[in-house]
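Example 199.
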Amino acid sequence: MSALSELCQEIRTCQRCQILAKNRTKVVPGSGMEQADIMFIGEAPGWHEDQQGLPFVGPAGLFLDELISSINLSRDQVYITNVVKCRPPGNRDPLPLEIQACRSWLDRQIELIRPKMIVTLGRYSMAMYFPGKSIGKVHGTALKKDDVIYYAMYHPAAALHQQSLRQTIQADMIKIPSFLTQAENASESVNQPEQLSMF
Ligand code: URA
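Predicted structure in complex with uracil:
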């Protein structure tokens, strides 16, 4: 068993949040390629994800699949996970204490996968890497820090509620390959976050 599979097994037994552990059907650690260059981080599992134990398998996931294929990849060639690994009851927002309790699982996944690019989907994962920023301003922009590119996008579910965001999300997605190439060619930046811009 790989270190990542072992970690996911450990996550499946998590009891850190009493309410989430009691109400969940399945824990949703994440899925995809262990050596993925790109890691997508959403918010928390919804009803479908809780039933199947897999991330983004409901309506928002269908749109995410479409977005991923727009950059000529499939979900097996990236890694997909969430800030919180268990479904909050009634799909409520995850609580700050739950996000904090789950944080080390995410950090350990990142350490093992070592993605070149972390794509935040929605406000909760954005807040981890773009603190104090608003999604309306920061979406479609990237930061490079310690050899990792952090790229913020709206949550795919936002397009389901607000049709006008669909094109924005599609446009942000297709910028990903050029950010990856640009960052691979750019000089190293140590500790100092570097704002990347499109050529
Ligand atoms: N929304 C998320 O943020 N994550 C999922 O896995 C599904 C829907």
